[in-house]
Amino acid sequence: MCGVLVFCMINNLKLEIAPKEGYWGRQGAGAIYLSKKTWRFLFGLRSDMVNEGGTWGGFGGKVDEGENPKQSVMRELEEETGYNGSLSLYFLYLYEDEGFKYFNYIAVVPDEFEPRLNWENDDYKWVEFGDWPQPLHFGTEEMLRHSLGKLKSLYDARQNLKEATNPQNQIKLNKLGLVPPNWTEVDYNVNGYELKSLYSYLKFGHSPSTRTFFIYNIGTDKEHQNKGYAKALLDTFFKMVKKQGGVISVGPYTISGDMYIKSTIERLAQQYGVRLIK
Predict the structure, then answer these.
(1) Which member of 7, 65, 181, 219 lies 3.0 to 4.6 Å from 198 by CB, making a disulfide possible if both were Cys?
(2) What is the rounded radius of gyration, in angstroms, for the C-alpha atoms of the chain?
(3) CB of 106 within 8 A of CB of 90?
(4) Nearest to 72, CA basis, from 105, 95, 47
(5) What is the pLDDT along the chain (278 residues), one digit of tens a residue?
(6) Domain boundary residue among 122, 152, 182?
(7) With contact defined as beta carbons under 8 Å apart, do 149 and 93 qualify?
(8) Are 101 and 28 in contact (CB under 8 A)?
(9) Residues 10 and 100 placed together within one structural domain of the fold
(10) Backbone torsion region of residue 54, taken as left when φ is above 0, otherwise alpha when ψ lies between -120 and 50, otherwise beta
(11) Over 146-214, what HEC string results?
(12) Which domain holds residue 194?
């Protein structure tokens, strides 16, 4: 609840962007980290040896000659935090001012880590959604102002998915009388997820702005096919979409070529009152 209240407060702020002393190039790029395990964000406290010292922000810098923004971010993240593990990088917002461009990304990592800071930052902090450290660097503040809606939608989707896949909400297979194995929720990409049981999986995407869900792929291992596991996942999926007030796209990303599953999708759509769009 605190995170939502902070989000509302920040979203309604009239931001006073601090005057800038000039830029150090024509392009820059940076990122804030997000832990998939804790859903907390990593910020760095800028040192007095850099512009806007004493403010909190992400990690980044100038895009060097011969680099693209993503390459620059990957280099800067390792230089400023020492992190060289697995991560997924997603674009959030492009800041532009007087010919200068700064590409803002979110770096999604499996879990929180202890950064090895260089001279550009004096401290670090993993924070909950909305509980941003203060004072923020003007660029980070501007990025959050434009990206909070996207981050909030992802946060809400994650919370609803956790509830939908809670073992206490498991359903029994209608005809087999079996209780499906524990469901687990796994990030697939920044706008996508995967529902998994012991033998089946369902990968799907979500467009928060339109409340549209896209089924990417569904499968069961060969030994356990035609035993109801995929149907159970689809049933859980439709319950979640119904609760979100969403619709399901049955366009080119679905498994519409599989007539057996297609008929199940159409039956569940009618059962739960979920609209299918093409």
Answers:
(1) 181
(2) 22
(3) yes
(4) 105
(5) 233 333 333 333 333 333 344 555 689 999 999 998 888 999 999 999 998 999 999 999 999 999 999 999 999 999 999 999 999 888 888 998 888 899 999 998 999 999 999 999 999 999 998 899 999 999 999 999 888 876 776 666 565 555 544 444 433 322 323 333 333 333 334 445 777 776 788 877 777 777 888 887 788 888 878 777 788 888 888 988 888 888 988 754 444 345 567 788 889 999 999 999 87
(6) 152
(7) no
(8) yes
(9) yes
(10) left
(11) HHHHHHHHHHHHHHHHHHHCCHHHCCCCCCCCCCCCCCEEEEEECCEEEEECCCEEEEEEEECCCCEEE
(12) 165-277
C-alpha distances out from residue 58 to 35, 38, 143, 189, 220, Å:
14, 18, 10, 21, 41
Residue 231 CB contacts under 8 Å (≥ 6 apart), including other chains:
173, 264
> What's the rounded Cα separation, in Å, for the pair 125 and 163?
28
* DSSP class of 137: P
CB 28 within 8 A of CB 60: yes
Count of domains observed in the chain: 2
Amino acid identity, residue 17? I
